[in-house]
Design a protein that fits this description.
Two copies of one chain form a homodimer. Chain A contains four helices and 19 strands. Chain A has 261 residues and is mostly beta strands.
């Protein structure tokens, strides 16, 4: 099942995507919903980030080549993370499929994409074993963890390096039926493939992360966990269109605008 | 005006505190509300964190003695932050006035309080000058930024060091009429004063933080910004009661429990 969140008729709703039609629901997929009789063409609604999470988790370094590339760029000896220590992103930065990524005028040229699979939590959960961990998962979507590298490494925190408004496109929808082991993640800029990797080739897999997190943290319905990206990215510039595709989850596509360009 | 959020009759509501009576409202102070005829004694309701923020900001190092003490403990040369780079905390960790701080069984002895003033945002805001910045503030409350120091410094992120469930007591209420310049922050453990500092003796003040944040981030109604703490803290142990008092904002009081103790 595919869940969208969308704006139409001056309100925001959740809906079920059936082919190219969106069936509007009352309520939401987490707390409960009922179907309405309202159907719209997918092309006629504005897609929103498919959920605004209570807490926005992000794994950060979680694929080997990306961790090595990041260390090399800093002139450091590559060191893979030794524990699944989860990080955070911020809701202000979320934007939907089709919305522009807006680069502030004072950002450097080093603004880069990171294509990521996103786990969407469906049930309140604490102290899950790895064997139990996937029972709290509602579905999956796609994230683009846009990053300004000078701010990311130069500031004391990742506030504007990772969390500038529009730097966190998420969507296009949440898919509840997904074959992680078969999936590949592909990043394209202006139609040209830049990166293509096996989505599940993570340093720490989803069950391990969720189990470890839930020893200390209660997971809540609607929480999202961005699982990290692979490879070394290139810079995005004004006028680019960046696409993240994950097998079975669709394509997250966003144009890039630089303020003042 | 004092705003509380509380649980009673199996639901959660906002209310206006008038003396020792809570007047229940429909809606909330951010999106709009209307008064109901229901009044309850403050002592008869369970106080909740006075808001669950869309984004939970925290300044981190923002008072000189705390920054110096933190560096000394790490054997580093004290270096004050040179820019107001905001950080983050996580909603799962929020708990209300009176609720226990629960220390996980595998935490070290180095679990410590940090008494902080919390700014509550009332209006959507972007690109505020310092002169305009306070116009987006709804009110103020108190936070205790409980921290496990070994995890805080040893993990790759501050996920369990700062964001373990119950590590972020906030409350008891939001005060909209507040004299920041006159306020002092006092921390007491088991009734004994541990720290007492001028609340506004920050390295970077509230207008500067909000202005700088809003250059890159949209602030939203209900967002909270924890402004940091002063001084060096001591360890909290099972059975302690920790109180943070800020002049005009009341007292945030929480007992401490260690799992398995």
């Amino acid at each position: 099942m595919r869940w969208v969140r969308f704006a139409a008729d001056n309100k925001q709703s959740f809906g079920i995507l059936e082919g190219d039609q969106v069936l509007e629901v009352r309520g939401d997929p987490f707390a409960g919903y009922e179907r309405t009789g309202t159907r719209r063409a997918l092309s006629a609604v504005k897609l929103l980030p498919p959920v605004i999470p209570p807490t926005f988790y992000a794994a950060g370094l979680n694929y080997p080549e990306h961790a090595i590339a990041a260390a090399n760029k800093r002139g450091e000896v590559p060191k893979l993370p030794t524990a699944a220590d989860i990080g955070y992103r911020a809701n202000n930065a979320l934007t939907g499929h089709g919305d522009p990524i807006i680069i502030p005028a004072d950002a450097s040229e080093r603004v880069q994409y990171e294509g990521e699979i996103v786990v969407v939590i469906g049930k309140k959960a604490k102290n899950l074993s790895e064997a139990e961990a996937m029972s709290c998962v509602f579905g999956y979507t796609i994230g683009n963890d846009v990053s300004e590298r000078n701010w990311q490494t130069g500031d004391r925190t990742m506030w504007r390096g990772k969390n500038t408004d529009t730097f966190k496109p998420m969507g296009p929808w949440i898919e509840t039926d997904f074959d992680l082991e078969a999936a590949r993640t592909t990043v394209r800029v202006n139609g040209q493939e830049k990166i293509n990797f096996k989505t599940n080739s993570m340093i720490f897999g989803i069950p391990h992360f969720l189990s470890r997190m839930s020893r200390y943290l209660t997971l809540y319905p609607g929480d999202v966990v961005w699982m990290g990206t692979e490879g070394a990215a290139e810079n995005l510039k004004h006028g680019d269109v960046v696409e993240i595709e994950i097998t079975g989850l669709g394509v997250l596509r966003n144009p890039v605008i630089r303020e003042g360009a």
